[in-house]
């Protein structure tokens, strides 16, 4: 350590531009970028825990509150261990196949304190006649990169869980999470972000419209098909047990999206600022459009509908958040507030397949439809100057800007079809493998009782000091006055 007037300064606290043979890292570390990236990752983490834990636990029937929240919490923890053990490098490491990285741990000290880099991301001109865009190397350590992208992976599995609430066997879910992360998520992440064939071809996915939302929407829908539906009475009436807490979870999700889209430029730069602004513009527009459509056609402004409109807006802007102008974000918000509304409220009721598959939270509409819509809209509205700030393929542009814009739209559609096809295949195989070990669906008794049968716990204590009032002990014939304090009617 250098001696400055007798005071010794640890290397970890030296200025970012200090060079030292012993420290080896301070010459490239940008503390502002590092701070923003860790804040972005933490904001995304708050979207999952507590965001979606609260939202799922509140938007379902009371008897499924604990199970739904726990599915999200378990996925968050399980993804973390799988991510650092093998999945990170499958997504962002050295190339094994054009769509997959080499599996290896992200746990070693030497690896984690070195400068962050995506080794497969060096982009060459056609025919490899020279480097067009250098390898992605942000100005912070690899530990920050691993942390940031783990939050994306965890959030994807938790979003997928929304399709399976209210009936999936928890033991099956425990197996499903690491398998789907390994054989589905890592493929999309490497192909589009880590240096895979879609990345180098120029398919645009700024922050996960395809990697996260399209994959979770399609994967959730396919898994819901194999798991089977909820009980008929649950499908007919599945009212939220706490609308206000549901809004709390939705609010955490919206605010956390600043890290979701604002962190993807890997820097605290002008592109991250624009991405956050566009994210809020699109989400607000989409919420308002969805609510207006509810009022026009159903004569009541639905709170759940507003949350769905918010979600579709956040999803739709994600693939192009830092690449479109703000007026285009409004247009995309109008699209995301109307097209998924139409598929959910009209198409769903007329298409037998959509009615047959019990997608509990409508993740197919809010994520798959909105994600595909956002990717296609990015192929239309991506602005050339903004594209050059972020994309490896120089001179990329959307359809309305002429040139190769039409080609970009075709690339977007082809990229979406790859993600859809891979997820249908991978999710189907995973579900078939899991059901060889444990049933995918809960038993009929568990489905009738809910949380108490599955976990031995319930979300709310309605009387006493937490114990349930047992009618088998007290009988069914006593007067109301004999019931515990606060209970006003017989069950």
Automatic annotation (TrEMBL):
Function of the molecule: Involved in ammonium transport.
Gene3D superfamilies: Ammonium transporter AmtB like domains
Domain Ammonium transporter AmtB-like: 35-460
Protein source organism: Acorus calamus (Sweet flag)
Phylogenetic classification of the source organism: Eukaryota, Viridiplantae, Streptophyta, Embryophyta, Tracheophyta
Protein name as catalogued: Ammonium transporter
Main location: membrane
SUPFAM superfamilies linked to this entry: Ammonium transporter
Recorded family membership: Belongs to the ammonia transporter channel (TC 1.A.11.2) family.
Cellular compartments per GO CC: plasma membrane
PROSITE patterns according to UniProt: AMMONIUM_TRANSP
Gene assigned in the entry: AMT3-1
């Amino acid at each position: 350590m250098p001696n400055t007037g007798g005071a010794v300064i640890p290397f970890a606290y030296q200025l970012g531009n200090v060079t030292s043979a012993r420290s080896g890292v301070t010459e490239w570390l940008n503390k502002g970028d590092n701070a923003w990236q860790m804040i972005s990752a933490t904001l995304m983490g708050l979207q999952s825990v507590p965001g979606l834990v609260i939202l799922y636990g509140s938007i379902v029937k009371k008897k499924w509150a604990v199970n739904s929240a726990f599915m999200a919490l378990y996925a968050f923890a399980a993804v973390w261990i799988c991510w650092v053990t093998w999945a990170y490098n499958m997504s962002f490491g050295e190339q094994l196949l054009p769509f997959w990285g080499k599996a290896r741990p992200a746990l070693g000290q030497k690896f984690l304190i070195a400068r962050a880099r995506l080794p497969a991301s060096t982009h060459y001109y056609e025919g490899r006649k020279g480097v067009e865009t250098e390898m992605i190397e942000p100005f912070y350590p690899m530990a920050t990169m691993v942390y940031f992208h783990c939050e994306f992976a965890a959030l994807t599995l938790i979003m997928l869980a929304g399709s399976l609430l209210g009936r999936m066997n928890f033991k099956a879910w425990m197996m499903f999470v690491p398998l789907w992360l390994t054989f589905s998520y890592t493929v999309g992440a490497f192909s589009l972000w880590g240096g895979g064939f879609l990345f180098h071809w120029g398919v645009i996915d700024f922050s996960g419209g395809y990697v996260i939302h399209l994959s979770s929407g399609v994967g959730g829908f396919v898994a819901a098909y194999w798991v089977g539906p909820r009980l008929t009475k649950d499908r007919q009436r599945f009212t939220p047990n706490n609308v206000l807490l549901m809004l709390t979870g939705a609010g955490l999700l919206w605010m956390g999206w600043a890290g979701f889209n604002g962190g993807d430029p890997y820097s605290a730069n002008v592109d991250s600022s624009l991405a956050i602004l566009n994210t809020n513009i699109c989400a607000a527009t989409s919420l308002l459009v969805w609510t207006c459509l509810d009022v026009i056609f159903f004569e009541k402004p639905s709170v759940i509908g507003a949350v769905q409109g918010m979600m579709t807006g956040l999803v739709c802007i994600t693939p192009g958040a830092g690449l479109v102008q703000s007026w285009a974000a409004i247009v995309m918000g109008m699209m995301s507030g109307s097209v998924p509304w139409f598929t959910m409220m009209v198409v769903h009721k007329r298409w037998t397949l959509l009615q047959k598959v019990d997608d509990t939270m409508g993740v197919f509409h809010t994520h798959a439809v909105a994600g595909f819509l956002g990717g296609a809209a990015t192929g239309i509205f991506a602005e050339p100057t903004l594209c050059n700030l972020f994309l490896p393929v120089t001179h990329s542009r959307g359809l309305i800007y002429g040139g190769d814009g039409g080609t970009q739209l075709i690339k977007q559609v082809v990229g979406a079809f790859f993600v859809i096809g891979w997820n249908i295949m991978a999710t189907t195989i995973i579900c078939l493998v899991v059901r060889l070990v444990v049933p995918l669906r809960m038993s009929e008794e568990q489905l009738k009782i809910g949380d108490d049968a599955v976990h031995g716990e319930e979300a709310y204590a309605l009387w006493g000091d937490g114990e349930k009032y047992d009618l088998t002990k007290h009988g069914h014939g006593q007067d109301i006055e004999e019931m515990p304090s606060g209970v006003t009617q017989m069950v």
